Amino acid sequence: MVRNLDQVIDWSIRAHSTIGYFAVLYKKSTLAVRNALVKGKFRDAERMQRFDAVFAQRYFDALNAYFHPSESGRLTLPWEVAFVGHTETGATMLQHMVAGLSAHINFDLGIAAVEVTEPAEQGDFEYDFNLINDIVAEQIRDMLDAVERLSPGVLWLRRLIPNEVRVIGKTLVAFRTAGFRYAAFIVLHPDQARERTVSHEAWTAIIGDWYLHPTKKRALQFAALPMLVRTIAKRENPDVAANLRALDAVPVTRERVNA
Questions:
Q1: Residue 259 lies inside a defined structural domain of this protein
Q2: Angle between the N-to-C axes of helices 164-188 and 93-101, in degrees from 0 to 180, rounded to the nearest 10
Q3: pTM for this entry
């Protein structure tokens, strides 16, 4: 899995593609989850290994569907929004990361959860499920410092949002809650799975699009965000390859998450 992510990152560096921003974050999170598995932090390590593999495969399937549409399955809308967004020169590296997180956690996570769990296992799985999200949050915390060095305007965003780590945590909680509720619904109501999946896929795509194109009209409580994003983008290092190399060099956080 890590080798595949390295291939995505290497290609992104060569192509100067912002698709690599989420891949770098995903690689850090994958390595951190592996560390947690080795340390016995999950209640059911074997199931979480299966889940990790199924979950990651959805990302790789989405990449293949985007780059090789005639050879692969259908590209889901959340990933189409995120991948098409890599051509958006005005979006910042943080926007690309969050759009990828939204697609993978809001949508993919629930589907992967259904594949590896039975209804009776939901309690224990939810505990391990939440732990994975805590691990991801820890990686984002450390990545922010590296992003700030490459995108000085991010400092203004961090000052504007007191305790940005908590905000990140709340965002991930919202993502995982949506993903888990979706998974629970289609497990309990398999006859309505298709209808719910279509609705959830469309909703997640809309959320991802807003992260890439925030507007006053779509979120009045964040009226200043569009202007702030434009300001951050102007000061961000435009060398995508150099940014990816710097982010890929950020060490994995290992010690803050407690089971």
A1: no
A2: 30
A3: 0.86
